[in-house]
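Why does residue order matter? Because the sequence determines the fold. Keep that principle in mind as you read this record.
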Amino acid sequence: MKRRTFLTSAFAGTAALALGVNLYSSDPIPVPEDVNYRVLFSVLIPALLDGALPEVASQRKIAIDTTLDSIQASISVLPDEQQAELKELLSLLESRLGLLFLTGSMTPLMLRSPIELVDMLEEWRFHYLDMVHTAYTGLRELILASYYSSPAHWGKLGYAKPTFLLNA
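Structure:
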């Protein structure tokens, strides 16, 4: 067997296996779709905001929930084309075939360790394909802007809300 034939066969077999696993559903009960991608963002927020989130669990949950609400508000004001692109990226990140294409692994992001998520995002940050780098930049900017849009988080930046003096 020639090397090229072997590699082509291995690639085709892997692609067929990935497609079969993606199409095969082991859950007989349909899972409701997360139309706002809150679960996906709740996994990405700690990876992108490492060190910025509070250490206390209850405060951390409040900060993540506030950020998730801000993300939804930010997405709703994006132009329709950008909303469609973002939703396409998020759908790819929730599908196994999309994960295989974007990350090289079919393991769902929710099942990955924080170290694996940070490594994946760092790979995207310096990726040679502009599409992957743009995906990283867009997710990062969306999450950071949504987190720091809350005045409660401005203190870490050393920023104070401006005050205006009114002449009476």
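DSSP finds seven helices and no strands in the chain.
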